[in-house]
Amino acid sequence: MMNTSTPLFEKKSRTSTKSYCFKIYEHEKKILKALIKATSKISLTTDCWKSSHQKIEYMVITEHFIDHNWRLQKRVLSFVHVPPPGTGLDIVDGIYKCWKHWEIEDKIFTISVDNAAYNDMALRRLKEIFSRVRKLTCGGRLFHVRCCAHILNILVTDGLAMIDSVIGEVREGIKYINNSEARLQTFSNIAHQLQIQDRKLLLDVPTRCNSTYDMLSVALKFKDVFPRFAEYEPHFHHLPNDEEWAHVESVCEILKVFKTMVTKMKEKLDKYWGECHLVMAIASVLDPRFKMKLVEFSFLTIYSNAEKNIEEVKKALYEMYEEYLEIHDASVREAATPANGCGGNEVSKTTSLGSGWEAFREFIKNTDLERPEKSELDMYLEEGVYRNQGQNGMDSFKALEWWNVHKLKYRVLSKMVMDLLLIPISTVASEATFSAGGRKEEMPIEILLD
Fold first, then answer.
1. How many Å apart are CA 330 and CA 283, to the nearest integer?
2. Domain match, 141 and 175 both
3. Which among 120, 244, 284, 288 could bridge 240 via Cys, Cβ 3.0 to 4.6 Å?
4. pLDDT digits over 61-82, tens only?
């Protein structure tokens, strides 16, 4: 068939095809390693997933970084089988092997994970490992980032437990109907008789509140069909009463809000303000549209001891800035020190006489060693918030683009921003790696504000 349609077609064996795949992989790997080498910091996300048909557990490790053009980048570094029972130590071993293989251990800034006990244990162990070889930013308080979407899901799941029996009745009823083509056809016929739009009943994943909302909202449309279906099926006993359906309707109104919130968190082009975590609070300050104003406004609404929490954010912000300032000063001193070991303040007569520009460059190096009276962070915070006057208003604003334009003005602060705004504050399920449909992305902290 291929020879007929394409005369130049040349048949390849599976061995050759496999060899070509590995060649492409090695080529792309070299390109990625070169790209990683040029970055200062990398944030990781990791998530575990169990294949339903293979009955095998996998762990995916994804890196996030900002390239030299100030664009967010994301790459899957490792997708490996995790032997049961998949403990925290297995997570540690998987991440450790990954960063050793890619030679990124000195670049890892944060790790974002779900709120599982084995992840807490794994991050404590990784934090200990890192603390032995280098100083962690802000004493390691930013190293472990908890997935905000997962926190939100836990909150909703706890709330749903109050009507768990009702949800269970709806779920079991849908299972009963979906298990037989004949039952589905009977249910569909009754729906048509009642002039209800025919739509397949949905079954949820109990641990995901979004899917529970989808299941209940569809079931509500068919609540009048269920009792009539029971007349055709004597063994069908999953019939919530009117009061229970009213509870389901009330819960759906609440879940609809959470579904919208979680959807926005997972869409790259949208922006969302979620859990007031320290990382997110600092990131909001580094958005020129908000600075400290959003923290002050939000914390006064959320916390009873708002002033204390605001001071904590300020303290962490300045602590982080001082760390970056020390690194910057060290690099400037190193660049100002001549290779022969002579003092940086000495300008040779030959240099002075031979080239005025060379003498001026030496002068600039020496004056750069002196810290200004007011820090870049103070100057940034004292300036008014940025107000975008474009046609699309706030939606057209990109924080990374703004910092790329102002990186020469804020040489130290911009480096801090580059590392902080790449942090993902949500993870995405590992099975998305296999998805050929619409991709759902982890949400970088750079796009959380709106």
1. 25
2. no
3. 244
4. 999 999 888 888 888 898 888 8
